[in-house]
Amino acid sequence: MRVVIVGAGKLGYSLAEYLTQELHEVIVVESDEGRREIIKNALDILTLEGNGASPAVLTDPDVKNADLLVACTDSDEVNMIICMMAKRMGIPQTIARIRSNEYTGVADTFIKKVTDIDLVLNPERIIALEISHILLTPFALDVEDFADGKVSLFESRMTDRSQYINTPLKNLSLPSGLLISGIFRQNSLIIPRGNDMLLPNDSVFFIGRSETIHELEQKVEVMTSKVERVMIIGAGRIGCYLAPILEQQGLSVKIIDKNMARCEHAATLLKNGMALCGDGTNIEFLTQEGVSEADIVVCLTEDDKLNLLLALLAKHLGAKKTIVKTARTEYVNLMEKVGVDIVLSTRLLSLGEILRFVRRGGVVSVSLLEGSKAEAIEIIIQDTNPLAGTPLKNAKLPETCLVCAVVHKNDVIIPNGNTVLYPGDRAILFVQASEVKKVMTYLEGR
User: Fold this and answer.
1) Cα distances (angstroms) measured from residue 50 to each of 5, 33, 56, 72
2) Smallest Cα–Cα separation from 322: which of 305, 336, 302, 342?
3) pLDDT for 104
């Protein structure tokens, strides 16, 4: 697939890097010479100088014959104009990054209808929704929903208190409708077999019927106390999206920022919560505001290194759990190693949204896991899919790819080797990242 990316900022660079690794034809349009040279030299791809909304750029043969255009400049309005013009020039699909809260929520549908943009991407809103989802399942490090909420995949870290450790998986009594789809141990992925065992500090991915998640909580025993009090440090876009969502879920919210204008804006969004102007690195201030009583401290400043410092400081002062937002994907594993409980990358969450447009073979959604070392991919089985009508034991999938859940006529099935998939079924695959290209080629019948 040929993909044109307009804007070589952090998201544009990450998207270009990821798509290039999957052997897609990528063209980057960027007016800033410095940014353009960085991406050209690092990724060895075609770059064009110019304004993405310029007719001269959009009529360029390399651009106008694209299958998808992604507009991720720093301006929401420019991104919308670029996508509108690209559609008029015949580019079939367009994606626009639109970050302002004036264009989100109810306005999303209106914008899509008026501009004919296929996907409105708001990274800050995506990560806010992801955090709120995780907080609803406090024993999980990550939660992903598939098949319209019928199937959930969640990540949990084993402790020495868990009933599941040191026992062969074939001897475990998991709640009905659940499967262990993957194990991350010392930064390596294990697709589990019957004789494998879970060990303390393993990150384990469970998948199955959504209603069975809470049955697992007592046995996993990562965090049994209910989340009631949340402290958010950073009243930027993400903080202002997140705080009202958490209030609606019945949580007590306190948001902190050094910028008075941001605090005043955040206060207008809250009904019962508090917005405080103060320095999140000030130990005395944090102590006075009850950081030790917070069930979770969420660090959402625009500085990745500051977020790490704030999380470690909060843990030192008694906070039970910390969540950190980072823009740099390479920081995810490092932050987890030094004591941050949950690290979320805005880029990875946005990439997952975009990848379902890029990939074919009936792909519905893509979730990047463990810093993009693995993926959970939801597909709708099509007539031409080689999995259709074939027992899974005969499927030519790599060993590092597991079909871990199937939805057939609204019934969730945990499959085995004899399970047969039919056109229209939804299947969720757990795949090692290095094998994704091979798996997608197979599913597309190539």
Assistant:
1) 12, 9, 8, 14
2) 342
3) 66
pLDDT tens readout for residues 303-360: 999 999 999 999 999 999 999 999 887 888 889 888 899 999 888 888 888 887 787 6
Nearest to 257 by CA among 289, 221, 233: 233
Integer Cα distance of 359 and 1 in angstroms: 8
Q: Are 367 and 153 in contact (CB under 8 A)?
A: yes
pLDDT tens for 80-91 read 999 999 999 999
Tell me the C-alpha to C-alpha distance, in Å, between residue 426 and each of 151, 176, 198, 385, 442: 10, 19, 29, 12, 17
Place of tokens 């991919």: 377
Looking at residue 24, its amino acid is: H
Q: Are 230 and 319 in contact, with CB atoms under 8 Å apart? A: no
Q: Write the secondary structure of the chain as one string of H (helix), E (strand) and C (coil).
A: CEEEEECCCHHHHHHHHHHHHCCCEEEEEECCHHHHHHHHHHHCCEEEECCCCCHHHHCCHHHHCCCEEEECCCCHHHHHHHHHHHHHCCCCEEEEECCCHHHCCCHHHHHHHHHCCCEEECHHHHHHHHHHHHHHCCCCCEEEEEHHHCEEEEEEECCCCCCCECCEHHHCCCCCCEEEEEEEECCEEECCCCCCEECCCCEEEEEEEHHHHHHHHHHHCCCCCCCCEEEEECCCHHHHHHHHHHHHCCCEEEEEECCHHHHHHHHHHCCCCEEEECCCCCHHHHHHCCHHHCCEEEECCCCHHHHHHHHHHHHHCCCCCEEEEECCCCHHHHHHHCCCCEEEEHHHHHHHHHHHHHCCCCEEEEEEECCCCEEEEEEECCCCCCCECCEHHHCCCCCCEEEEEEEECCEEECCCCCCEECCCCEEEEEEEHHHHHHHHHHHCCC
The count of other CB atoms within 10 Å of the CB of residue 108 is 16
Tokens matching residue 384? 């031409």
Short-list 5, 82, 71, CA closest to 40: 5
Given a contact cutoff of 8 angstroms between Cβ atoms, the answer to whether 275 and 264 are in contact is: yes
Query: Which pTM does this prediction carry?
Result: 0.81
Question: Would you tell me the crossing angle of helices 123-136 and 237-248 to the nearest 10 degrees?
Answer: 30
C-alpha distances (whole Å) from 379 to each of 69, 154, 346, 355, 407 are: 23, 18, 23, 12, 10
Residue closest to 322 by CA, chosen among 129, 123, 141: 141
